[in-house]
Amino acid sequence: MGGIGAPFTAWISPFRGGRGGVCSSNCNHILRPSSPITDLSVKSIDDLTEAEASTELHRLAAAIAQADIAYHQNDAPEITDADYDALRRRNEAIEQRFPQLVLVGGPSAAVGAAPAEGFAKVRHGIPMLSLGNAFDDADVADFVNRGRKYFEKEFLRDPGFQLYFTAEPKIDGLSASLRYENGVFVRGATRGDGAVGEDITENLKTIKNIPQQLKGSDWPAMIEIRGEVYMSHAEFQRLKAHSAKFGVQEFVNPRNTAAGSLRQKNPEITASRNLDFFAYAWGISEDEAGLAQPPAATQTEAVQKFKEWGFVTTPLMIRTESKDDLLAHYTMIEAQRATLGYDIDGMVYKLDDLELQRRWGFVARAPRWAIAHKFPAERATTILAGIDIKVGRTGALTPVARLAPVTVGGVVVENATLHNEDYIAGLSNDGAPIRNGVDLRIGDTVIVQRAGDVIPQIVDVVLDKRPADAVLFVFPEICPVCGSPAIREINEKTGKVDSKRRCTGELVCPAQAIEKLKHFVARDAMDIDGLGDRQVSQFYEAGRITRPADIFALKARDERAIKKLKDVDGFGATSVKKLFDAIDARREPELDRFIYALGIRHVGETTAALLAKTFISMDAFRRVAIEATHAEGDKHAIFPQIGGIGDTVRASVMAFFANDRNIQALDDLLAEVSPRDYIVTVTADSVVAGKTVVFTGSLERMTRMEAKAMAERLGAKVAGSISAQTDILVVGPGAGSKLKKAEELGVEVISEDEWFKRVEQ
Ligand code: IVH
User: Fold this and answer.
1) Angle between helical axes of 660-670 and 618-630 (0-180°, round to 10)
2) What is the pTM of this model?
3) Hey, which residues does 282 pair with through a beta bridge?
4) Which CATH class, in words, describes the domain spanning 692-759?
5) What is the Cα–Cα distance from 697 to 71, expressed in whole angstroms?
6) What is the pLDDT of residues 520-569, one digit of tens each?
7) From the CB of 280, is ligand 1 less than 6 Å away?
8) Which of 153, 170, 265, 496 is catalytic?
């Protein structure tokens, strides 16, 4: 029985040839010229059509990103500096000619770029704060009452005393701080982390309603005007329509697009994006002598002044002492929300009197004197135009609503998840009615909800509007992709019918095959760099990769192929070589990763690790699983009981190995790759044996999964949270509440380096 229950063998570093930053034989420190140029890449920029320019920008973005990673992250440049500069120059020149095509997050964006390329940092003289939230009327009443209580004495002293509040829309954009010296705009910055932002002066200068020179003369000698940069719906639609023509899909919503437009390096692009600015607050405000000089005595007057100085301010601000007025204004603005022409996500209430603001003060990073009253998740009414079926990795058929496009919270929604066939019929997973048991029919008027970034949902049907010819949806009983029967399994234990119908086609089903391949190469599975969802689909469709084994045969086949991969659109000699290297680098995967990558239903990372730990070698796992599958009588006698692995997983593993096609695919794969045995160290010798360890923060030398595996191999127990039982907390940068708790409980706290020092002794 191979390794099962075998005595523990010696410690072997889990990082051998792995991703821990150690250079494998595939590392390449030699400067090579860039890939041969395709026709488009030599075409003069002046001759490029818009569509060609778009293709070219994508190619350049990929090439520059690859070079950046090689240079900055791997310290292994793949192209010469001159070639790199040429790529960037070409990218810039094309961007300049076609500013509308600039890719958000592309090479000219600051995000993720090399530090030298980034924006200069600006420390805010006065921090840019965030706001506390109110979610309902009661929260607003609490806020107003807190103010009244705080200024109780004023009310007693002066019977005429009133606390006035302003109410104005909360603009869903990006805040910016604009510094004016002697009325002239000199510098503008993003909010950043509140204390330090980025210098985006040149970009802000292109926003037409930001004055370069303040009007009038009663402004402080130095003032930082703060407000929100945003993109109007009209502008967003214009850009989207434009990008649709060229298949560019980066415009998710106006706020992200505004952010992308502002935080990139080419002011001409910002200029081409037509952003707007509302002024609503200020930072430092000083007279010539450098003494504080507030712009006015109240919030209302300050905003009035901003308007006089040439800023656009909200026309939707009121001032009142009544909580009910605040709420009435909220309701009124909420009703107008869809027609305002820009996104707002709530209202902001502020104490009007600046002196009282000062006295009321701040908590942590938000003022006590202001609060944001959020709007609930947005809903919209639209028509259910059709229902499509998506087939996932495990064959589950998921219905997706095709909707007449509707804007919900600034995002155009065209699809919503419908979960499963019971959901369409008006039943929840446990058979209880949802939407009062009303089913969904094609042609129905439905209410779509979008909360934050979650997938839109259909929350209701407007029955009154159901047309006579609304079509009942008959859920397919055969897979729409491969034609295999799609069945609803019955859970043997509970006797319940699975809510999902599943395609039984397994690997003959292209949809399942593609999803399985995507899972196989994913970061938490085999982690093959350069083989993402897009490439997997592309290779599948071209017949280059249909099963995992094909990935590892890709290079050998390419050598024999007439049409080489390097000549395929979107690839070049360099990227192909990189891809082949990345594939070769994973020919000896860790056993737990490998098992997880197989995509056996119900076998997640934790289960895969348990299986690896139990069987130690792939060979043992495969052999025992097959034996158990074919055993007469008690399969359990052969397949061991494993703590943490229940009947569902066991049955699923058996089902996987009962299928000859799976075994064939696995064996073909094992002819190409050799999963490393899962080595367990002699735990008694380890300094951390028997200890309970927690990892927190972003670890730099290992992934979380590796950290956990390593600690477990050393006989330690890994916990997810700190308690009195915790012995050691290993912290990486950015550790938060766990670190605090550990300190409170007196738990030993060590760095990642210290951890390595200890365990490597
Ligand atoms: S006042 C000290 N007013 O909301 C208070 N903020 O959640 C400073 N925001 O970072 C903020 N519209 O980006 C204020 N009318 C408005 C606003 C507004 C949008 C944003 C701002 C801030 C965030 C806080």
Assistant:
1) 160
2) 0.47
3) 225
4) alpha beta
5) 26
6) 999 889 999 889 999 999 999 989 999 999 999 999 999 998 889 898 87
7) yes
8) 170
Q: Which helix (H) or strand (E) holds 306?
A: helix 299-308
Active-site residue 170, yes or no?
A: yes
Instruction: Give the separation between CA 208 and CA 212, rounded to whole angstroms.
Output: 9
Question: Are the beta carbons of 423 and 398 closer than 8 angstroms?
Answer: no
Q: Is 370's C-beta closer than 6 angstroms to any atom of ligand 1? A: yes
Chosen CATH of 506-584 out of 1.10.3720.10, 3.40.1550.10, 1.10.155.10, 1.10.150.20: 1.10.150.20
Q: For tokens 């229902």, name the residue.
A: 387
At 66-118, the pLDDT tens digits run 776 665 554 455 776 667 767 887 888 888 788 777 776 677 653 332 322 47
Signed CA dihedral, 141, 142, 143, 147: sign only: positive
Top-level class of domain 379-472: mainly beta
Domains of the chain: which residue ranges? 19-115, 379-472, 506-584, 591-670, 692-759
Q: Residue 453 class from Cβ within 10 Å (0-12 exposed, 13-18 middle, 19+ buried)? A: exposed
Give me ligand 1 centre to Cα 310, in Å: 20
| Residue 484 to residue 508: CA distance in whole angstroms | 9
Taking the centre of ligand 1 as the mean of its atom positions, its distance from the CA of residue 108, in whole angstroms, is 28
Q: Which CATH code is given to the segment(s) 591-670?
A: 1.10.150.20
Query: Is the CB of 372 within 6 Å of ligand 1?
Result: yes
Cβ 77 under 6 angstroms from ligand 1:
no
Residues 6+ apart with CB under 8 A from 202: 267
Amino acid sitting at position 238:
R
Sign of CA dihedral 288, 294, 296, 300: positive
Which structure tokens are listed for 594? Answer: 């490998």
